[in-house]
């Protein structure tokens, strides 16, 4: 039996997509420790896994990129947060390694310090990525604004120019990261690409046709489909009696002030046939009033039990909600509010399984039309669902990780990280 330590950033949207892999590893006979949010101890232990809390100093450094005004500023703000967490992650993972002596480390792509420690261990290691891959390729647009794949020479020139701006804008934090990595004796990442290509395997939690098909994938990147685990829950009985079509409106569990989506949905759908289910997550549900009995507003609902019973999902574009809907064959309307959500929205639209409605165009009238359009896209959503299943999911992840464990057993003893 091998011991696998899965290390996440302080975000449920990064923990939950890896819980299916953790459980599959356990079922394959491995010991699994999940080091994650302290508040998720009950969820992790309740699933039959070992839990270890990440350091409080890491949780005390939340992402505030939603306050920034443009895509580059948002990226720089996110980089600053991930860089500030990195020294704490080093200490955190060093302590875990000393106490638990795991055979394999699987680290979150957003945990730069943990990734440096894993590479410095001298053993094979893996990374997981629960959002869209931001690496350049001729057939993939520049990451950030949510451009469609380039078709013309002008669009390819646009993408090259934007990547150049991003390289300049992220050079300083990556240099500081490389200084930290040098202290551990490992090569620098050098560029954005190096953040994702240093690991022996990257478990990419999506798959084409939701993500853009590439002619050439980086050798270590394995699109295995989404992770759809969720804590146990039961949908309120009254939801089953709500008339169809049913529209689920869901905003972010990480605060980003996206309440305008809820307000627009209530204005757009109140007088439409069927019913509306709203989950406000990080927002106070008391901010919003249900106009009649066909509108149900609450902070949380178990989406795993609800999504399959609705006809359309309106979302801010978090990968978790978007892919959960599509994995159930339910089309989406995505109003991307921040972070990588424009990329998620555009992929939903390009796949044909959803509609992208930019925040600057959000009105009740446009949202109403977008929902009507999305209802006609169920066949495309079902095609994405089939592709997700065929990507292999947790089963494929276990195959890849067990391959690394075999390598671990064959290499010389790892050197101690100072």
Could you provide a short overview of the structure?
The protein has helices at 12-27, 41-46, 56-59, 71-100, 112-120, 153-184, 194-197, 259-269, 303-306, 319-327, 341-350, 364-375, 378-390, 393-410, and strands at 3-7, 31-36, 50-53, 104-108, 126-129, 201-204, 221-223, 246-250, 275-279, 295-298, 312-315, 332-334, 354-356. It is α/β, with parallel strands linked by helices and 418 residues long. The chain folds into 2 domains: 3-225 and 391-410, 3-Layer(aba) Sandwich (Rossmann fold); 237-389, Rossmann fold.
Descriptive account of the structure:
By secondary structure, the protein is α/β, with parallel strands linked by helices. It has two domains: 3-225 and 391-410, Rossmann fold, CATH 3.40.50.2000; 237-389, Glycogen Phosphorylase B (Rossmann fold). Helix content is 43%, strand content 13%. The strands form two sheets. Strands 3-2-1-4-5-6-7 form a seven-stranded parallel sheet, with helices on both faces. A six-stranded parallel sheet has the order 10-9-8-11-12-13, sandwiched between helices. Helix 1 crosses helix 14 (393-410) and helix 4 (71-100) packs across helix 5. The longest helix is centred in the middle third of the chain and has 32 residues, at 153-184.
Largest sheet: 7 strands, parallel
Please report the distance between the alpha carbons of the first and last residues: 27 Å
Radius of gyration, in Å, reads 21 Å
Unreliable parts: none
Question: Any idea of the CATH topology of the largest domain?
Answer: Rossmann fold
Q: Into how many domains do the coordinates divide? A: 2
* Topology, number of strands: 13
Averaged pLDDT, please? Answer: 93
CATH superfamily of the largest domain: Glycogen Phosphorylase B
